[in-house]
Design a protein that fits this description.
This is Class I SAM-dependent methyltransferase. InterPro entries: Methyltransf_11, SAM-dependent_MTases_sf. It contains seven helices and seven strands, in the order ααβαβαββαβααββ. The chain is α/β, with parallel strands linked by helices. A seven-stranded mixed sheet has the order 3-2-1-4-5-7-6, sandwiched between helices. Helix 5 links the parallel strand 4 and strand 5. The longest helix is centred in the middle third of the chain and has 13 residues. It is globular.
């Protein structure tokens, strides 16, 4: 991943205000509260709002991102909420996670660069235990028309970085699909997710 990509996220996260707020994503909150606690991984976790929420519920939380500034904000948020999380900085293949380590993985607006996003999904699959759960919410390919009309809703502006139901099925083939849909939703998350958008939502159990 190039320095321009890293700098983009460091610049977004270095201000005092939280880019996407301090509250958890609604879909993550709704789904994680249905699960028995265990070990959970948050890829591309940014400033930590979802990881901290999971930790407060009693999960053993790991997270990673390429942004040091994101990690700094996440650790501050964890301290303010009297919880602790394991937060690593770097690209996935350089980090010390183990196969079959996690009971759940939460991919919440984890928009990796288009050329590596499927590869990362397949790497993450190896880290999830049998019967483990994926919780996923990210912008759909149809979101492009929404962000063109309203930049405040956020999300990538290239269609290759956005998701389709077919891509999710291809990236996570060995899963029982509990839920998989494209949906129009209203976002109100901090400074950068505000307005109507189109998302893919997926909950799957590894078989």
């Amino acid at each position: 991943m190039n320095n321009t990509w890293t700098k983009r996220w460091d610049d977004r996260y270095k201000s005092e205000e939280f880019a996407y707020g301090e509250k958890p994503n609604n879909y993550l909150k709704e789904q994680i509260e249905k699960l028995k606690t265990g070990a959970i991984l948050f890829p591309a976790e940014g400033e930590g709002r979802n990881a901290i929420f999971a930790s407060k519920l009693g999960w053993q939380v790991s997270a990673f991102d390429i942004s040091e500034e994101g990690r700094n904000k996440a650790l501050l948020l964890a301290k303010n909420n009297n919880v602790s999380i394991d937060y690593q900085v770097g690209e996935l293949e350089t980090l010390d996670f183990e196969e079959n380590q996690f009971d759940a993985i939460a991919l919440i607006y984890a928009h990796f660069p288009a050329m590596i996003k499927s590869k990362i999904h397949k790497q993450l699959d190896k880290l999830l235990k049998k019967d483990g759960i994926i919780i996923f919410e990210a912008f759909s390919k149809n979101h492009l028309e929404y962000v063109t009309k309203n930049e405040k809703v956020g999300g990538p502006k290239d269609i290759e970085s956005l998701f389709s139901i077919e891509e999710i099925k291809a990236d996570f083939p060995d899963y029982e699909i509990i839920e998989l849909e494209e949906k129009e939703i209203e976002l109100n998350e901090g400074l950068f997710h505000n307005g109507t958008g189109s998302v893919i939502r997926f909950v799957g159990r590894k078989v």
